[in-house]
Design brief:
This is Glutamine amidotransferase. This protein is an alpha/beta fold and about 260 residues long. It has 8 helices and 11 strands. It is globular.
Length: about 260
């Protein structure tokens, strides 16, 4: 592939096997990164061994969310989840060693967190829908959150969360229900608990698709959809635009 970072595509690692949700996720990430759909290559983890990933072929890598929980007991994980996590572990070894541009969302924060020694458990779940997020002082100064207010609304929904970060990680955002809403290791490896790619259409799709996945009682679907529509969520998408811009200048950041 081209050596110019501006000409390289991005890579989306997905754990979504539900076609409607997977298509929506890809479209949302490409739209808010500000790139064409064919500039965001998608690989579905867990369906087959992850092919060799040459980090130099990509502008940056994103890991999305889905039905896996990184903190699940090993004996309860499906073969697909175990395969995905083995592949992710090897990839994250390379990513963190190189301080390579990487952004994990929702499941991604648990995956990166465990890889880095964080405590990930079921102590701080959040219901599906809007959440209020507050940047830390470090988050307010971080270029990934440039142009964002200290407090903003986002969409989320998770069964697990990080209850303690390792000392070398930088906490960037928090919420009343979940103490770690975003963190960074190194200069370029980021993770968010909330979904930076979700607008109203996106969260409504997720509510519909995952109504029977244990996040909420299916009878609550209509009420959750109404609650999601009652707020305006616009700021989290700035994170993806900033991430794309940083990926295009990754060489300068590392130097």
């Amino acid at each position: 592939m081209a050596s110019d970072p501006a000409a390289k595509p991005f890579l989306l690692l997905s754990i979504r096997t539900e076609e409607r949700a997977a298509l929506e996720e890809h479209a949302a990430f490409s739209r808010f990164l500000g790139i064409a759909a064919d500039e965001l290559h998608r690989i579905e983890l867990g369906t087959a061994p992850l092919p060799s990933i040459d980090l130099d072929d990509w502008a940056g890598i994103i890991l999305g969310g889905g039905a896996f929980n990184a903190s699940d007991p090993e004996e309860s994980k499906s073969p697909a989840q175990l395969l995905a996590e083995r592949d992710l572990g090897r990839l994250l070894d390379d990513v963190t060693a190189r301080d390579y541009p990487f952004l994990g969302a929702c499941y991604g924060i648990g995956s990166i967190g465990l890889h880095q020694g964080a405590v990930v458990d079921r102590s701080f779940p959040e219901g599906v829908g809007p959440v209020s997020v507050e940047l830390t002082d470090e988050g307010l100064a971080d270029p990934l959150f440039a142009g964002m207010p200290r407090e903003f609304r986002a969409y989320g929904g998770h069964k697990e969360a990080i209850s303690r970060l390792p000392e070398h990680a930088v906490a960037l955002a928090t919420s009343e229900a979940a103490p770690v809403q975003a963190f960074r290791v190194g200069k370029q490896v980021y993770a968010t608990q909330f979904h930076p790619e979700l607008d109203l259409d996106g969260i409504l799709t997720r509510i519909a698709v995952y109504a029977h996945h244990g996040y909420f009682d299916p009878s609550e679907q209509e009420a959750l959809s109404a609650a999601a529509a009652a707020v305006t969520v616009t700021h989290p998408m700035t994170i993806l635009r900033n991430f794309a811009a940083r990926c295009r200048h990754a060489d300068a950041i590392q130097s």
